[in-house]
Design brief:
This protein has helices at 31-41, 51-57, 71-82, 108-115, 126-134, and strands spanning 4-6, 9-11, 15-18, 44-50, 84-88, 100-103, 120-124, 140-141, 144-146, 153-155, 165-172, 178-184. It has a single domain, classed as Dihydrofolate Reductase, subunit A (3-Layer(aba) Sandwich). By secondary structure, it is of the alpha/beta class. It is globular and about 40 Å long.
Length: 185
């Protein structure tokens, strides 16, 4: 049985994007954090994306072809390309990456069937994660807290959510980020 994990870069004050939608503060030129992100996503069999997150992440379909791409970029691109992707969107016309399918509605029962198979899954993007959290599907929550405060924007967790969590791991990075990994009880 696989786990469904929700992990994103978040500010110290709990936002994945600022009030203008910017998330450029996430991992600029942090090779250590990029390598770690590749390491923790390597076992992921399937990424579950909302439209906006998919449109951001589809960059990795061709990132390995960038001239002078550092090795950590190439490695993450290969890891991303090797996994299946499901994009949940009512408005996206088509997908532009391999191993990707478009689904119009989020169906908790279908996600549970995926979890019942082999390999881990991630739910990526706060909107889709909110639906998965509210359906009781998320097994682990792993904010990667970066040392910045933006004062508002898109929250990492939906308002009104109540969960009991157990800390199962933590890791600090040289540039000040911290990954906290919690199991949902």
């Amino acid at each position: 049985m696989g786990r469904l994990m929700y992990s994103m870069m978040t500010t110290l004050d709990g936002y994945v994007a600022d009030a203008d939608g910017d998330f450029g503060w996430e991992m600029p030129d942090d090779a250590e954090l990029h390598r770690y992100a590749e390491e923790i996503t390597r076992p992921v069999r399937t990424y579950l994306y909302g439209r906006r997150m998919y449109e951001t992440m589809v960059f990795w379909e061709t990132a390995h072809d960038l001239p002078d791409a550092p090795d950590f970029i190439v490695e993450y691109a290969k890891t991303w390309q090797a996994a299946d992707k499901i994009v949940y969107s009512r408005t996206l016309g088509s997908v532009s990456s391999e191993r990707t399918r478009l689904v119009r509605e989020f169906d908790p029962a279908a996600v549970q069937e995926l979890k019942d198979g082999d390999g881990d899954l991630t739910v990526d993007g706060p909107g889709l994660a909110a639906a998965a959290l509210q359906a009781g599907l998320v097994d682990e929550i792993g904010p990667i807290v970066v040392p910045v405060v933006v004062g508002g924007g898109t929250p990492f967790l939906p308002p009104g959510l109540r969960l009991r969590l157990e800390l199962v791991d933590e890791r600090r990075f040289d540039k000040g980020a911290v990954h906290l990994r919690y199991r949902v009880r």
